[in-house]
Amino acid sequence: METLDLLMNGFVQALTWKNLLFCILGVSVGMFVGVMPGLGPVAGTAILIPLTYGMEPTSAIIMLSGIYYGAMYGGTITSVLINIPGEAASVITCIDGHQLAKQGRAGVALGVSAIGSFVGGIVALIGLTFIGPPLADFALRFGPPEFFSLMLLGLMMLVGLMGKSLIKGFIAAIFGLLLSFIGIDPISGSTRFTFGLPEFFGGIDFVIVAMGLFGISEILFNADNQHKADKPAKVKGLFPRKDEWAPAMKSIGRGTGIGFLIGLVPGANAVLSSLASYSIEKKVSKNPDRFGNGAIEGVAGPESANNATSGSSLIPLFTLGLPSSPTVAVILGAFIMHGLQPGPKMFRENADFAWAVIASMFIGNIILLVMNLPLANIWGKVAQVPYKILLPLIMIFTMVGAYTVKNSVFDIGIMILFGFIGYLMKKLEIPIAATVLTLVLGSQLESSLLQSLAISNGSASIFFARPISAVLLVLTALILVGTILAGVKNKKELLGTDIEI
Fold first, then answer.
1. How far apart are CA 96 and CA 110, in angstroms?
2. Which residues contact 332 (CB under 8 A, 6 or more apart)?
3. How many angstroms separate the CA atoms of 11 and 7, rounded?
4. Packing angle of the helix pair 57-82, 40-48 (nearest 10 deg)
5. Most buried by CB count within 10 Å: which residue of 184, 210, 356, 396?
6. Kind and range of the H or E run holding 272
7. CA–CA–CA angle 276, 277, 278 (5° rounding)
8. What Cα–Cα distance (Å) separates residue 99 from each residue in 206, 262, 290, 358?
């Protein structure tokens, strides 16, 4: 009851005209940031922090938090409509969301995304309100070995995105891992795969690679196949068919649970939760061949998962002062800038502030639902623009987005190069999603591995001596064995050919 009283007091503050205005402004700007390839929640939040100078701490954090979870849904829009992920967690949505748009069901994809995002966000906030402290205490047990095992498990879940041929899928995944190694070796300090170019010393940016592999390749592929391309059908509704409601809601439930638990782990991110959700949805489906061809569960699950992760990732921040993702780290910087230190003491010393921000997040998720369900049909009309008009606009949009990441013309050239690589991958039916996701997870995997070996003086036994890490490794091994057995049973899936085994 005490928690409910504190939350109600938070709503009183959050619903003042000023804080409500900043909440609406935050989620609206967040939507725009998510839609813009090249920005995303991390860059968008960081760029807009200076706007909060001189603002009251409560209003400032309410607005920045709104940008954060608003951007998570905004990235869905471009993923569905033009196959360009607005941010990393939306990569998975491209797979089935864009296929639904090609079938004239963009409104359905955006509508179910809005519902899933709302459910995932609200459940995560309930967790933040009532069960955050004990769960965050458990997540604190994760060290580098646990992170390494978790990342390894995430990479193994990529099997669900390998497409018809596991061999081609592994080629794509290894390519992404190699890209993640570009830059300066964290141990020796020597450069790797930089070809002597200073622009590569800091590594290769995910946004540039994603816009090239997804956006530019889409332009080239459609230009090459324009005579074959079907005109996008008109959007006729925002909601699934009657027979799709039950599987969609089950996917939303599973995605919410997965995303909530992963968000509790400092260092884990929404990419991992959306990937895990998609992999599980494909495995539990009675007809997994639908995935990649417009399965509504392939949109509902991952979208619920990444928004649940966004909400639950605030639990370690509020209760322990630990940022669990790059965007939350930016928000932590904003806390400190305004003279606030997240952690257990914050709920005692700054209780009014903490509960007002939490209450504003409930309000913000409702605002996003109200904004996006009616507007999803308007966004869907973008799919009706002819390719000869849409493709040059996408080209200009992606070039501007690539330049704004670091204000570098060099990045535009790299994006175009990856556009040609993505075009070849599409022609050869090599899954692009596997490359992009291993690029995102690869650097975290390497960092956790090196830290673990440093702790154990080079002994790999540390991964098996720690219970949580050992359990995660066992799960990874079970998935690997299950995949091999399934491949032997279904030889066409293993080799992508008709060869008998």
1. 12
2. 317, 321, 323, 342
3. 6
4. 150
5. 210
6. helix 270-284
7. 95
8. 23, 27, 11, 36
What are the C-alpha distances in Å from 492 to residues 77, 143, 429, 487? 34, 40, 15, 8
Distance CA 222, CA 226 (A): 5
Tokens describing residue 112: 């179910």
Using CA atoms, how far apart are residues 190 and 209, in angstroms rounded to an integer? 23
SS3 of 205, please? coil
**What is the three-state SS of 358-398?**
HHHHHHHHHHHHHHHHHHHHHHHHHHHCCHHHHHHHHHHHH
Burial of residue 25, with CB atoms counted within 10 A of its CB: 0-12 exposed, 13-18 middle, 19 or more buried: middle
The distance between the two most distant Cα atoms of the chain, rounded to a whole number of Å, is 70
Percentage, residues of the chain above pLDDT 90: 3
20, with CB counted inside 10 A (0-12, 13-18, 19+), is middle
Greatest mean pLDDT among 30-39, 47-56, 299-308, 349-358 lies in 299-308
Helices (H), 228-269: 242-263
pTM of the prediction?
0.66
Alpha carbon separation from 295 to 105, 270, 300, 351 (Å, rounded): 11, 21, 9, 44
Which SS3 state, helix, strand or coil, does residue 13 take? helix
- How is residue 160 annotated by DSSP? G
Helix (H) or strand (E) holding 425: helix 409-427
Mean pLDDT of 233-261: 80
Is the per-residue pLDDT at 161 higher than 60?
no
pLDDT at 495: 46
Q: Tell me the helix, strand and coil percentages in the chain, rounded to 5.
A: 75, 0, 25
Highest mean pLDDT among 106-120, 381-395, 409-423: 409-423
State whether residue 101 is helix, strand or coil.
helix
- Tens of pLDDT along 175-202? 988 888 888 877 777 778 888 788 888 7
Distance CA 273, CA 151 (A): 11
Task: State the pLDDT confidence band at 36, using cuts at 50, 70 and 90.
Answer: low
Q: Tell me the C-alpha distance between 356 and 365, whole Å.
A: 14
For 68, the 3-state DSSP assignment is helix
Q: Is 292 left (phi over 0), alpha (psi -120 to 50) or beta?
A: left
Residue 470: band (very low, low, confident or very high) from pLDDT cuts 50, 70, 90: very high
Rounded distance, CA 252 to CA 114, Å?
11
Distance between the two ends of the chain, CA-based, in angstroms?
Answer: 63
Place of tokens 């459910």: 119
In angstroms, the Cα distances linking 127 to 36, 267, 369 are 30, 19, 20
Host H or E run for residue 183 = strand 183-184
Distance between CA atoms of 185 and 148, rounded to whole angstroms?
18
Q: Is 189 helix (H, G, I), strand (E, B) or coil?
A: coil
Structure tokens given for 153 = 């498990």
Structure tokens at 396: 């200009």
